[in-house]
Amino acid sequence: MEKKNEKIGMSWLKLASGPLLFLLVWVLDPFALGEQANRVLATAVLMITWWIAEALPMPAVALLPLVLFPLLGIAKLGEAAAPYANEVVFLFMGGFMIGLGIEKWNLHKRIALTIVQFTGTNGNRIILGFILATGFISMWLSNTATTMMMLPIAASVITVVTAKNEHNPQLRHFAVCMMLSIAYASNFGGIATIIGTPPNVAYVSFISKEYGVDISFAGWMIVCLPVALLLFFALYGVLIWMFPSRIDSSNDMQSLIRDELKALGPMTTPEKRVLIIFLTTALLWITRDLINQLEVVRLDDNMIAVFGALLMFIVPSGSSFDTKQRILVWSDTSKMAWGILLLFGGGITLAAALEKAGIISALGQWLAGFTGSSLLVLIAVIVIIAIFISEVMSNVAQVIVFAPVVTGIAVAIDVDPLLLGIPMTLAASCASMMPMGTPPNAIVFSTGHIKLGEMMRAGFVLNLISIALIVLTSYVVLPLVMRIHP
């Protein structure tokens, strides 16, 4: 009873902290911003406080501008509501729906099992197989959904391996590797594509809305896919180095993978059609710029995502054209994370108000004064701050909050905003030390296979590797691919 009362008291404290800080900023005007700008700052403080404290669901907090902006005279309702229908929001919605189709017809499970079967069934190869399978799927599905899908498969593998290696003193290391490989590969895989993880979409929508910068799906992949692949192999090396298990291949393991694939049976008609739609959409994303050069049609990534989603509702799952027998029916979207779309809208609205009030440019100029003249050092500082803050703060909220700030710094020192914004965004998805860093971290930690110290040790090493790869890629590769100049 006492613990319950403490929990209730903490919930009320979290809830009250936001309005209290809101009133303090509004009344005191600590930065002497002027009445209008101070109201925007007070609203931002309220939203950020509730996001960090998780006092309310994050999408609910994102709706605050629709009430407070008109109420406080910051913006009219129509102006405040417009970003909730930003075109990039539909990119993520389309990606979500394509992911639902893949998940509904078990295509993701077949891909995962096939990759594991291909890589082999001794301890280290199983781990490599799970990293590659999980990472590939996470490029197209949310990292949380990917982790939840891979977890029962991993649990079955651990059970079989445990039964056959009871006397192996390092057996527990195998379970640790399996769990961490799923969580981290889900996180790293998401950075490879724009739709792979919400922070990517949040940043792309911000930079498109505020600065008119169009980051293509293919351009993002050219920069970020190599980073993700290098992180996969770094993850493999770190895990087998820190938690060696030395488990030999066994017939039972091969049988388990075969049985799982056999249970799926041959590819079904809807599975094949989902695969065709998925490949068609991905191909259009990758070749969009080439198609546009023909000047027959004009495509953008948002349009392609919605087109792929619509095909899921149009194409029948069998021979019948009944609307109830399509690859996706509308009831399937009840599983979709609609709240993420509201979160993007609220973040874009807040960022626009902060920019209009002059707060972002002032903050950028202030921070730029502490960074010195080295762009490489500045990128490194931003990446280090982003990756370690993400250990304790939602990565989506972090990108929404920090995207305007790093853009303000870029403007203040006269460099392209992408040189600071993209590394900040990638770093936000690479938190590896703490269970609360990302949902996949929390999911695998809750299984009981991993101790906090083990996650922190492996995560710290991976954080350092992530920092090095992101900084070097952003400094060397990003300017070449995006055709921007430092």
H/E topology pattern: HHHHHHHHHHHHHHHHHHHHHH
Number of helices: 22
| Largest β sheet strand count, sense and barrel closure | none
The end-to-end span amounts to 59 Å
Strand content: under 5%
Shape: globular
Quaternary status of these chains? Answer: single chain
Class by alpha and beta content = mainly alpha
Helix content: over 70%
Please state the average pLDDT score: 82
SS elements, strand count: 0
Poorly predicted spans: none
- Which radius of gyration do the C-alpha atoms yield? 23 Å
Task: Explain the overall architecture.
The structure is a single chain. By secondary structure, the protein is mainly alpha-helical. Among the domains are: 1-61, no CATH class; 87-335, no CATH class. 73% of the residues lie in helices and 0% in strands. It is built from 22 helices and no strands. It has helices at 2-28, 35-53, 58-61, 64-71, 77-81, 87-104, 107-119, 123-138, 143-164, 171-190, 198-211, 217-242, 251-264, 269-293, 301-314, 338-356, 359-368, 375-389, 395-412, 418-428, 439-445, 452-482. Helix 11 (198-211) runs parallel beside helix 16 (338-356). The termini are far apart. The model has no long low-confidence stretch (mean pLDDT 82).
What would you say about this model in short?
This protein has 486 residues and is mostly helical. It has helices spanning 2-28, 35-53, 58-61, 64-71, 77-81, 87-104, 107-119, 123-138, 143-164, 171-190, 198-211, 217-242, 251-264, 269-293, 301-314, 338-356, 359-368, 375-389, 395-412, 418-428, 439-445, 452-482.
